[in-house]
Amino acid sequence: MKIHKGSCLCGSVAFELSGEFDSFFLCHCQHCQKDTGSAHAANLFSTSGTLTWRKGRDLVKTFQLPETQHSKSFCQNCGSAVPTHAENLGFVVVPAGSLDTPIDKTPNAKIFMKSQAEWTKSMDNVPGFETLPE
User: Fold this and answer.
1) Which residue segments constitute the domains of the chain, with CATH numbers given?
2) pLDDT (tens digit per residue) in 62-80
3) What positions does the domain CENP-V/GFA occupy (predicted)?
Protein backbone atom coordinates (compact mmCIF):
# COMPACT_ATOMS: atom_id res chain seq x y z
CA MET A 1 0.00 0.00 0.00
CA LYS A 2 1.31 3.44 -0.90
CA ILE A 3 2.04 5.99 1.81
CA HIS A 4 1.80 9.64 0.83
CA LYS A 5 3.37 12.08 3.31
CA GLY A 6 2.76 15.79 3.60
CA SER A 7 2.98 18.84 5.80
CA CYS A 8 2.19 22.52 6.07
CA LEU A 9 4.58 25.36 5.24
CA CYS A 10 5.76 25.92 8.83
CA GLY A 11 6.08 22.18 9.55
CA SER A 12 3.74 22.23 12.55
CA VAL A 13 1.25 19.89 10.86
CA ALA A 14 2.27 16.58 9.28
CA PHE A 15 0.11 13.81 7.85
CA GLU A 16 0.10 10.56 5.91
CA LEU A 17 -2.44 9.12 3.53
CA SER A 18 -2.26 5.33 3.20
CA GLY A 19 -3.78 4.23 -0.08
CA GLU A 20 -4.34 5.42 -3.61
CA PHE A 21 -5.71 8.61 -5.10
CA ASP A 22 -8.78 8.08 -7.28
CA SER A 23 -8.69 11.42 -9.03
CA PHE A 24 -6.75 14.64 -9.37
CA PHE A 25 -8.67 17.77 -10.34
CA LEU A 26 -7.67 21.35 -11.04
CA CYS A 27 -10.77 23.18 -9.84
CA HIS A 28 -11.47 26.63 -11.26
CA CYS A 29 -14.66 27.30 -9.26
CA GLN A 30 -14.94 30.67 -7.53
CA HIS A 31 -14.78 29.05 -4.08
CA CYS A 32 -11.41 27.42 -4.89
CA GLN A 33 -10.12 30.68 -6.36
CA LYS A 34 -10.98 32.48 -3.14
CA ASP A 35 -9.60 29.89 -0.74
CA THR A 36 -6.31 29.46 -2.65
CA GLY A 37 -5.90 33.09 -3.70
CA SER A 38 -4.99 31.75 -7.12
CA ALA A 39 -6.47 30.61 -10.43
CA HIS A 40 -7.45 27.14 -9.23
CA ALA A 41 -7.06 24.52 -6.55
CA ALA A 42 -5.07 21.35 -7.26
CA ASN A 43 -6.69 18.58 -5.21
CA LEU A 44 -6.27 14.82 -5.03
CA PHE A 45 -9.26 12.71 -3.95
CA SER A 46 -9.19 9.32 -2.23
CA THR A 47 -12.26 7.24 -1.36
CA SER A 48 -10.29 4.34 0.11
CA GLY A 49 -7.27 6.05 1.66
CA THR A 50 -6.75 6.44 5.39
CA LEU A 51 -5.67 9.85 6.67
CA THR A 52 -3.40 9.87 9.73
CA TRP A 53 -2.23 13.06 11.42
CA ARG A 54 1.43 12.60 12.43
CA LYS A 55 1.61 15.90 14.31
CA GLY A 56 -0.29 19.13 14.77
CA ARG A 57 -3.84 17.76 14.47
CA ASP A 58 -4.88 20.31 17.12
CA LEU A 59 -3.66 23.10 14.80
CA VAL A 60 -5.88 22.02 11.90
CA LYS A 61 -9.02 24.09 11.42
CA THR A 62 -11.69 23.26 8.87
CA PHE A 63 -13.89 25.95 7.34
CA GLN A 64 -17.19 24.74 5.86
CA LEU A 65 -18.75 27.26 3.48
CA PRO A 66 -22.40 27.49 4.56
CA GLU A 67 -25.01 25.88 2.31
CA THR A 68 -22.35 24.26 0.07
CA GLN A 69 -20.20 21.14 0.00
CA HIS A 70 -17.09 23.33 -0.14
CA SER A 71 -14.69 23.08 2.79
CA LYS A 72 -11.03 23.79 3.40
CA SER A 73 -8.71 22.63 6.16
CA PHE A 74 -5.63 24.63 7.04
CA CYS A 75 -2.84 25.04 9.59
CA GLN A 76 -3.77 27.76 12.08
CA ASN A 77 -0.09 28.80 12.37
CA CYS A 78 0.83 29.38 8.72
CA GLY A 79 -2.49 29.12 6.84
CA SER A 80 -1.30 26.33 4.54
CA ALA A 81 -3.95 24.05 3.08
CA VAL A 82 -3.92 20.52 4.50
CA PRO A 83 -6.18 17.51 3.87
CA THR A 84 -9.89 17.57 4.56
CA HIS A 85 -11.70 14.40 5.55
CA ALA A 86 -15.10 14.94 3.91
CA GLU A 87 -16.87 12.19 5.85
CA ASN A 88 -20.31 13.20 4.60
CA LEU A 89 -19.09 12.80 1.00
CA GLY A 90 -17.01 9.68 1.60
CA PHE A 91 -13.55 10.87 0.60
CA VAL A 92 -10.36 12.63 1.68
CA VAL A 93 -9.25 15.72 -0.26
CA VAL A 94 -5.49 16.31 -0.28
CA PRO A 95 -4.11 19.59 -1.65
CA ALA A 96 -1.41 18.48 -4.11
CA GLY A 97 0.99 21.20 -2.94
CA SER A 98 0.87 19.91 0.64
CA LEU A 99 2.55 16.62 -0.30
CA ASP A 100 6.20 16.04 0.54
CA THR A 101 6.43 12.76 -1.38
CA PRO A 102 6.12 12.62 -5.17
CA ILE A 103 3.00 11.29 -6.85
CA ASP A 104 2.80 9.51 -10.17
CA LYS A 105 -0.65 10.87 -11.02
CA THR A 106 -1.29 13.75 -13.38
CA PRO A 107 -4.50 15.80 -13.30
CA ASN A 108 -7.56 14.01 -14.66
CA ALA A 109 -9.33 17.21 -15.60
CA LYS A 110 -9.78 20.94 -15.18
CA ILE A 111 -13.21 21.42 -13.66
CA PHE A 112 -15.61 24.37 -13.34
CA MET A 113 -13.98 26.03 -16.33
CA LYS A 114 -17.03 28.30 -16.70
CA SER A 115 -15.64 30.14 -13.64
CA GLN A 116 -12.05 30.31 -14.97
CA ALA A 117 -10.38 33.63 -14.13
CA GLU A 118 -10.13 35.86 -17.20
CA TRP A 119 -6.44 36.53 -16.60
CA THR A 120 -5.63 32.82 -17.05
CA LYS A 121 -7.16 32.45 -20.50
CA SER A 122 -4.12 33.64 -22.45
CA MET A 123 -1.18 32.22 -20.53
CA ASP A 124 0.60 30.54 -23.47
CA ASN A 125 2.84 33.55 -24.16
CA VAL A 126 3.73 34.35 -20.55
CA PRO A 127 7.49 33.79 -20.08
CA GLY A 128 8.71 31.22 -17.55
CA PHE A 129 11.76 31.44 -15.28
CA GLU A 130 13.59 28.83 -13.18
CA THR A 131 13.69 31.27 -10.22
CA LEU A 132 12.64 34.86 -9.48
CA PRO A 133 13.50 36.98 -12.55
CA GLU A 134 16.14 39.69 -12.17
Assistant:
1) 3-118 (2.170.150.70)
2) 998 888 888 899 999 999 9
3) 4-120
